[in-house]
Structures are given as structure tokens and as C-alpha cells.
Amino acid sequence: xxxxxxxxxxxxxxxxxxxxxxxxxxxxxxxxxxxFIPSIANTIGTDMSTYxxxxxxxxxxxxxxxxxxxxxxxxxxxGNEDCIISQAYIVFDIIDNEELLxxxxxxxxxxxxxxxxxxxxxxxxxxEVFEWDEMCNVLLSxxxxxxxxxxxxxxxxxxxxxxxxxxxxxxLESTAQxxxxxxxxxxxxxxxxxxxxxxxxxxxxxxxSYGKMPNLKNKGNIxxxxxxxxxxxxxxxxxxxxxxIVIARGDSGSGRVVRSPKKFFLxxxxxxxxxxxxxxxxxxxxxxxxxxxxxxxxxSAQAQVTINNLEDFDIMIxxxxxxxxxxxxxxxxxxxxxxxxKEEKVLTTILSLLLTKLTKI
Length: 361
What we know:
Elements: E1 5-7, E2 12-15, E3 28-30, E4 36-38, E5 52-54, E6 59-61, E7 74-76, E8 83-85, E9 90-94, H1 102-109, H2 112-120, H3 132-136, E10 139-141, H4 145-184, E11 198-201, E12 206-210, E13 222-225, E14 230-234, E15 244-247, E16 257-259, E17 265-266, E18 270-275, H5 281-289, H6 307-311, E19 314-317, H7 320-357
Parallel strand pairs: 13-17
Antiparallel strand pairs: 1-10, 2-9, 3-4, 5-8, 6-7, 6-9, 11-19, 12-18, 13-14, 15-16, 15-18
Helix pairs in contact: 4-7
């Protein structure tokens, strides 16, 4: 063990302050991505006086780690006002911020190695729990406080760059939606369409194709896309350009319309819409975003979307020349978005490398 590794319990203390006088009403929860988030719990009739108060720059964690995606849910609260969380959570803070920086400790908690350690040290039969004593026995590298601040500032700068990029992506996507609305929604009456416009089906302009099970044993550089996200990589390329994808299976997402990567292998959880003319793509994507595609779901045991239902889905079909104008206009926006996402991927990799460096200090 390196000489600068210290026992975490020497730097932290548990805090248990209850909302007994009901002065705090900001109820938050904790996410698996290690963030404080608005609570979705039904609190009607709940006694909020038993909830725990969390002050800015205190920590909270969920001791139960089973069925939690192999992660431990822990976060640093950076809000400007006190909040309350479930009494089932453990709240703690750092005894002396001049010895251990909260942001530095949070970086340590974000390491995959910490998640693996917490799961290994979790015990129980019905449910596995990472007890407070085990949290205190965690060993971590504690460099001088100035070095901690430097590392935390580097991490914060990268996080801020990623957040700025996400805001820029949202702005560009909003711009594409605004242009779509101006060209295809404003002053357009579906009951009395302009000349050259018509109502039709997806099958009038596209064919649809199911994905299939990929072979993930042979790793390659082709992303495996499920509709929910990239879930791995393989050697086999199923599609060589971007397509509109409809999630076909899964109660949480079936019916959702998403964009695919540029080159990818599609899993059997989704359906690809293969346009007969690529110039329809940007129009159809935006149009489907405004429609109730979740109505495509069938099945009682598990929600799913079938090709037959998808191809028979009603759509408005403007003249191809109109769709081409829109395609040419927003293509530049999406090329810019792609560049930003490539940068974000690099920044995320750098963040991971920075977390890895913590063990080498």
C-alpha cells in the first residue's frame, strides 16, 4: 500500500439531522449516475419530519447496492439551499475541508474501481448493503490539499466543457425543429393540404427492417446500437449510413424514435426505417417526433412494435422538393452536432483517464 493512502473514516463523519420542524421542503433523490435529482416518490400522506436534511457540500449514499447496476449510488450535494432526502439514505460530510476536498472525494467515488469495491464489500441475504463501517474503511490517496484542488479544477473544467457542448447541441436541435415547424406545420391544415401534399403511410416512402442478435465475442470497431444506446461493438457492419430507428421492444422505450450512428449493427430490440429516398429523412424524423408513435405498441406480456404496424403508420407526405430543401438546410446543423459529439467523446475519455490517475498520486 502506498504511504499516502489513508482510511476514509479518519476524514468523514455521519450526519443525521431530521426535518422535524418541516422547514425544508426541497425533496431530492439520488441517481445511479451519482447525482442529486428531483424525487419522483409519491409523498402524499408521508411524514416529512422524519426525512434527513442535506446541506450544501454534504454527501449522501444509498447503502443498498443489490440490483443497482453494479454501482453504488453516492453523490455530493452542490445546491445553494438545504434539501431533504429519504431517511433510508446515509448522509455524511468531511470533517476538515482543508485536509480532504469534497470535490476530490467525489472524483474518487466516480471511479469504477470504487463501485467494484463497494459491491464486493456489500453483505446481506435478501439484499446486499454497503454499511457505514465499510465506507469508513475505504482507503484512498490523499495528496496535499493544493494538489487536490488542482486535480478537481481540471475535472471541473472538463465537466463544464461537456455541459456547454450539451447546451449547444440542444440549441442546434431546437433550431432544426423551429425550421421544421415553419416549413411543415405553420399554416398547414392536414384536412386541406396544399397542392402536391398528401396523407399516406410510412410504407409509401420506406421499407422497414428488424435488427438481429449481434456476435459480441469478436470485438470490432462497429458500434452495436439497440435504440436505447450503443451497447457494445462487433466486426459486422449492418448499415453504413444513419437511419431513423424505432425501438421495438422494452416497456420503457418501445415506440420511441431515435437516430442511429453513421455506421452500426442494429440489435433485435429495434427496427430501422429504410427510406426509398434519403431526402425524406430529416423531415420524417421531425414529423415522427411530433406524433404518438407509442400508440404502435402491441402485446400484453411485453410492449413491442411490429414492422406491419410501423409501415402502416399514418404520415403526412409533402413534395419531395420541399423535404429536400429542409434536408439541405439542417444537414449542416447535424454535421456540427456530430463534430460536437465527437469532441464530447474525447472529453469523456479524458475524464476517465483523470479518475484513473488518482490511484497513481
